[in-house]
């Protein structure tokens, strides 16, 4: 890679990180349900942080009072110093600003809170994912982020018996077709790679010496530009992630380039052999998966082979992703042409120049043949 080009990339990433600080965007699978008072009862979207208690075993916190945290310094609702009110067995409500998110949650935890809701202090910004800060390793309670608009609404009722639940609700998937592979967990990465393999090809201009695709028990990745976690039906039994960000900078300041494997990195995630010899000839096969992805200057491919890996057919994907847009978390479907009647393998190839790609819940779906699918992209969901 041209060194001047690499320098420009790093300067751009540093500039971006100034604005994003410790924040990235993602998808929510946690719901705040307000039980009381009835005037604001209902479900509100929140987003879990990437520190504190595990999303997979710490949620479903039911029927708890919600109370605003008060600390000893002005402003007294940001929990940037010791919290003085007793939050035992309560959900703490905390305002954003003046210190990092983990510090706020830690102070609420020290006051007895069993969970923390951090309220945005900026309007029309939606939900953000809170990355770890200096107290992250000391936080053991779950912490979630909530929009300013929703927080302002529930704050009005703080003195009227405000009570609610924090509920874990992972997404579900019911594609309109027959699952011909993956229905028994072959693409869930439950506990690890299973029968999948990885091919670590290169780091910068040299051979890769790091594991590029890496398994995580909760589908999380880390990076100097921000962390993320996939929201997928079985994310809590693990997922595969490739963090170009972390590999390039080692989790240090965004774009620093001091990690174990400099950008651009190239790596592949390869399936076991899949037998499609018994699939009806008047059908088509789609590969269906969940992904959590953010783009800077990377290329993404789904590939398949009919001859045991001697030749591969490459399908460029994620070409709609925009540089430095927020994270995309979605279910994806791509047509695999002319695979019926064969034994095939598929692979995900990432030519990675920031930020990351997380994959889970891969399946092959049989649908009736319908001719053209307009560029091979369709929605198989309900």
Task: Provide structural commentary.
This protein is mainly beta and 382 residues long. The protein folds into two domains: 28-168, Glucose Oxidase, domain 1; 178-368, Galactose-binding domain-like (Jelly Rolls, Sandwich). It is built from four helices and 24 strands. The protein has helices at residues 3-20, 101-110, 148-155, 244-249, and strands at 23-24, 30-36, 42-48, 61-68, 91-95, 115-119, 129-130, 143-146, 163-168, 178-181, 197-203, 206-207, 214-216, 220-221, 228-229, 239-243, 265-270, 274-275, 283-295, 299-305, 313-317, 328-335, 343-352, 355-368. The protein has a seven-stranded mixed beta barrel. Strands 11, 12, 17, 18, 20, 21 and 23 form a seven-stranded antiparallel β-sheet that branches. Strands 10, 13, 16, 19, 22 and 24 form a six-stranded antiparallel β-sheet that branches. The protein is globular. Residues 1-27 and 372-382 have low confidence and may be disordered.
Topology overview:
Elements: H1 3-20, E1 23-24, E2 30-36, E3 42-48, E4 61-68, E5 91-95, H2 101-110, E6 115-119, E7 129-130, E8 143-146, H3 148-155, E9 163-168, E10 178-181, E11 197-203, E12 206-207, E13 214-216, E14 220-221, E15 228-229, E16 239-243, H4 244-249, E17 265-270, E18 274-275, E19 283-295, E20 299-305, E21 313-317, E22 328-335, E23 343-352, E24 355-368
